[in-house]
Design goal:
Elements: H1 18-26, E1 30-36, H2 41-56, E2 64-68, E3 88-93, E4 98-103, H3 110-120
Parallel strand pairs: 1-2
Antiparallel strand pairs: 1-3, 3-4
Length: about 120
């Protein structure tokens, strides 16, 4: 099951987030694992713009894994990744090592927060 809420927001303004897009583009060896629910208001608010940023950064579909959770926040990978709040985005190397994790309560939009954290690790 895929996340409808991760479909790119067609009105998202790439130019306003060019730094984030450039950073996501530069990290072309990462996998994005996204947990959410189409029923979740935070997911509906945050994930369409993340989807647009990943699309703008030309992240291929095979490096984006979507995990749709039910209203009890149950589903694939929840226990393994200790998912408590959604949306949650776990960014890993292709070897499966966690690099960073966005959880719903961060103070920046997901794409901006992820890019900021990736830049800080350089």
């Amino acid at each position: 099951m895929s996340l409808e809420t991760l479909r790119p927001n067609p009105t998202w303004d790439e130019a306003s987030y060019q730094d984030a897009v450039d950073t996501l583009t530069a990290h072309d060896d990462l996998v994005y694992k996204v947990w959410g629910g189409d029923w979740c208001k935070d997911c509906r608010k945050l994930l369409p713009n993340l989807g647009a940023a990943l699309e703008a950064a030309e992240v291929p579909d095979e490096r984006i894994e979507e995990y749709a959770l039910d209203e009890d926040k149950q589903g694939e990978g929840v226990e393994e990744y200790d998912i408590e709040y959604i949306p949650t985005v776990v960014v890993e190397t292709t070897d499966g090592d966690e690099v960073i994790r966005f959880v719903e309560s961060e103070d920046l939009p997901p794409a901006v927060w992820l890019a900021t954290q990736l830049e800080a690790q350089r």
